[in-house]
Specification:
With 686 residues, this protein is an alpha+beta fold. It folds into 3 domains: 3-140, Cysteine proteinases (Cathepsin B, Chain A), CATH 3.90.70.10; 157-464, ABC transporter type 1, transmembrane domain (ABC transporter transmembrane region fold, Up-down Bundle), CATH 1.20.1560; 508-519 and 550-684, Rossmann fold, CATH 3.40.50.300. 57% of the residues lie in helices and 14% in strands. It contains 23 helices and 17 strands. The strands form 4 sheets. A 6-stranded antiparallel sheet has the order 1-6-2-3-4-5. Strands 12-15-16-9-17 form a 5-stranded parallel sheet, with helices on both faces. Strand 2 (76-80) and strand 3 form a beta hairpin. The longest helix has 52 residues, at 366-417. The radius of gyration is 33 Å and the shape is elongated.
């Protein structure tokens, strides 16, 4: 794939998914990969697309599964296999429920029905199990504009909320228009009531009554229709919010720079995803009911001002009072709201710690109870301060309802006596003011929801503000070959007086033996670019490691230190999203001696593992981890004290299997058998 073709394909995808690209950055990444090995084309395409903000996942499935995915609205890239000229198609469902088929090479499109989709895909491939790519309809990091933007690191939460809303500005604008129209249509009630009273007072004809009744029905029906349209638009925003934030959490938590965020407990931040429900409820309530209340108040008070100029003065009084009661205490309200919300998370975090350490922090533990009491005391303190502000809002708003209703009744009655206002206008004004004051009494709830939304956004912002890894664009020479590492004058924190100069030859095996007081694990962190050295240089295939693409390093360098499994099948835990033939997986499991043990389970390799790895034992899980590494085809494998618990015979078998694969192997261990099986051993302080 030529660099220009690669750029065109990514720009083509972005255009059809309405995702904005940084074109200069895109071209920079592509230029860094101009010498692309044909075997790496797909990997490079996916990597550059992901770094450009377009989420792409490579998968393999039958035509029926791919068809169902497209019908559900998931954009799919499908390679055509049975033609003389290979083509790549982008398939996505449009608003009319038709399938849009876009040809990458000719940049043209055609429409087919959902019923034709299956036969269309079958006619364009001769394979049973087809490779394809799933596209995310949203950018990988849609909330980048919510990150801290000024040098001081201060970013007002209100500005974050505005940036948050801007992502859906079209839908918000549509909701605003629907709300305005609904509010205008609702004015038919007081207007028709005033007309009816005036008509009855002057004449007794039935025809005006029929016209007024029909008008009332039509306008209220239209108002209801607008409400339904508002609800539909709000539902779209809620779904988008969930999808966007889930991708943002994935992008930020998986791609966090661990060294920069070493003082942050990352697992606790994953709980912030539950704040999405608060945001969704807040969006629904404020965009439908809250917006309707504001429009009702504004339109109602404007109509009253047309009845008499005195009501204009009344309107000014209302808005001034509203500013003093609602907007002046707003900042202190959301600040205390955020503080009490933070206390809730501290309590939740402490309870999680108790669950993790039942032996140390049991129900009878004095430490557990005392800490929880302190946290609850702080929560109650901030909650009381927050509630005091809410009560102030409520007292002010309900007082306004009583004052406003009394003023309109007294003032309107006086104007009727002075013949400056008709009886119908008085009744209409009283109906309007009762409606307006009813909306004022609801505003206390809207203010509380606004505080909750701002607190939720603050919690989510802690994830959005996580420092991300720098996206380098360089690839080393021979990226698919075993990795060679050259250490030049490298200085470790534990060996600050000693410079390390070593060459790890590609495809060789090395052991690291160290004094127990020397933290040799740091060297493995530096070799995998997870940590920076005090001084010196690390060259990977003659390229400085800190300039190489982090995506490449994560795929080609494997650090095996502890068991890491997720809830899913044994096969899923081995492949981790990679597309590999089942025969390869079976062969590796057989070589490592785990295949027979796996086959004893009813579901075999498809047995579901719990988050703690059950039903596999610790030994079996370790072999599964080794299988995962071998299947991923790395260039460098770093093993840090992972093989110590195996019996001598099994250690030898595992090492023999590891050395059969074409990668560079480094094992950190003081185990005699392990070191004897390495081609070269480094001794640190031994």
């Amino acid at each position: 794939m030529k660099p220009e073709t690669l750029i065109q394909n990514i720009e083509f995808i972005a255009k059809n998914l309405a995702i904005s690209l940084d074109h200069s950055l895109l071209r920079g990444w592509v230029r860094a990969r101009e010498q692309i090995n044909s075997e790496l084309e797909v990997e490079v395409f996916i990597e550059i697309a992901n770094q450009s903000g377009i989420g792409i996942i490579q998968k393999q499935a039958e035509i029926s599964d791919i068809t169902n995915m497209i019908k559900r609205g998931v954009p799919v890239i499908f390679p055509v296999r049975n033609q003389k000229k290979p083509e790549i198609l982008l398939l996505l469902k449009d608003k009319k429920n038709l399938i849009k088929v876009l040809d990458f090479s000719e940049q043209k499109e055609q429409l087919i029905s959902q019923s034709e989709l299956g036969s269309f895909l079958k006619s364009n491939t001769s394979m049973t199990d087809n490779p394809y790519m799933i596209l995310s309809p949203e950018p990988l990091s849609p909330y980048k504009n919510l990150e801290h933007s000024n040098p001081n690191g201060r970013f007002e939460i209100i500005e974050r909320l505005i940036s948050f809303i801007k992502l859906d500005k079209r839908d918000v604008f549509a909701i605003l228009i629907y709300g305005m129209m609904s509010g205008l249509f609702n004015l038919i009630v007081p207007i028709s009531t005033a007309s009816l009273i005036n008509t009855i007072a002057m004449e007794t004809l039935v025809q005006p009554l029929v016209v007024l009744t029909l008008s009332l029905f039509i306008f209220l029906a239209l108002s209801g229709f607008m409400k339904v349209m508002q609800t539909i638009a709000t539902e779209i925003i809620q779904k988008r919010t969930m999808v966007r934030l889930s991708f943002e959490f994935l992008y930020k938590i998986a791609g966090v720079d661990r060294e920069k965020a070493k003082n942050t407990y990352i697992p606790e931040l994953s709980n912030r995803i539950f704040e999405v429900s608060s945001l969704q409820k807040g969006v629904e309530l404020l965009l439908i009911d809250g917006l309707a209340s504001i429009l009702t108040i504004i339109i109602g008070l404007m109509v009253m001002a047309f009845y008499h100029s005195v009501f204009l003065v009344f309107d000014i009084f209302i808005f001034t009072y509203l500013y003093a009661v609602v907007f002046l205490p707003l900042k202190s309200g959301y600040v205390t709201g955020i503080k009490q919300s933070k206390q809730k998370y501290r309590i939740a975090h402490w309870i999680q710690e108790i669950a993790k350490k039942p032996g140390t922090l049991s129900d009878s533990s004095k430490t557990a109870r005392e800490r929880l009491e302190d946290l609850n005391r702080d929560y109650v303190y901030y909650r009381d301060k927050y509630f005091a502000i809410l009560i102030r809002h409520l007292i002010g708003l309900h007082s306004l309802k009583a004052i406003g209703s009394a003023i309109v009744l007294g003032l309107g009655g006086f104007l009727v006596i002075q013949n400056q206002l008709t009886l119908g206008q008085l009744v209409a004004a009283e109906l309007i003011i009762m409606t307006v004051m009813g909306e004022f009494s609801k505003m206390g709830k809207y203010v509380e929801v606004s505080y909750d939304m701002l607190a939720s956004l603050d919690k989510i912002s802690h994830v959005i503000d996580l420092p991300s890894k720098d996206h380098k664009s360089n690839l080393p020479s021979n990226p698919k070959s075993p990795i060679e590492i050259n250490l030049i004058n490298l200085k470790l924190p534990e060996l600050s007086s000693q410079n390390l100069n070593f060459l790890l030859k590609a495809g060789q095996s090395y052991g690291i033996a160290s004094d127990p007081e020397i933290e040799s694990s740091t060297l493995l962190d530096i070799l995998s670019n997870r940590q920076s050295s005090v001084s010196g240089q690390v060259l990977l295939n003659q390229t400085p490691i800190q300039t190489i693409s982090q995506t490449f390093l994560e795929k080609r360098i494997c650090l095996l230190r502890k068991i890491e499994v997720f809830e899913g099948s044994i096969l899923d835990n081995i492949l981790c999203g990679n597309i590999k033939p089942m025969d390869d997986v079976i062969l590796v499991l057989k070589k490592l001696g785990l295949l027979d043990e796996v086959n004893r389970f009813t579901e075999g390799i498809h047995t579901i593992l719990k988050p703690n790895g059950k039903p596999l034992s610790t030994r079996q899980l370790k072999i599964l981890m080794i299988t995962r590494i071998l299947i991923s085809e790395p260039g460098l494998v770093l093993i840090d004290g992972f093989l110590e618990s195996f019996e001598e015979r099994e250690v030898i078998r595992i090492l023999d299997v590891l050395k059969d694969f074409p990668f560079t192997l480094v094992v950190n261990s003081n185990h005699k058998v392990i070191l004897e099986n390495m081609q070269e051993v480094w001794n640190f302080g031994v």
